[in-house]
Amino acid sequence: MAKPKHRPFCLSVKGHVKMLRLVFALITAVFCIADGALIYRKLLFNPSGPYQKKPAHDKEEEDL
């Protein structure tokens, strides 16, 4: 009985799939950390929330 030819793991199909998973996991981790840092920075510099517009009647009085 002939033994199947030994192939290095990184050249097999399973190896490619596992390497792709690793790359996507690393990219996802980087994006999650960057997203968290941006949210933290936004909340740190603007803790009251997004800019709120004044009502229209207040705006008209200021223009006069």
Automatic annotation (TrEMBL):
Membrane spanning stretches: 20-40
Keywords assigned: Membrane, Transmembrane, Transmembrane helix
Protein name, per record: Chemokine like factor
Name of the gene encoding the protein in the UniProt record: CKLF
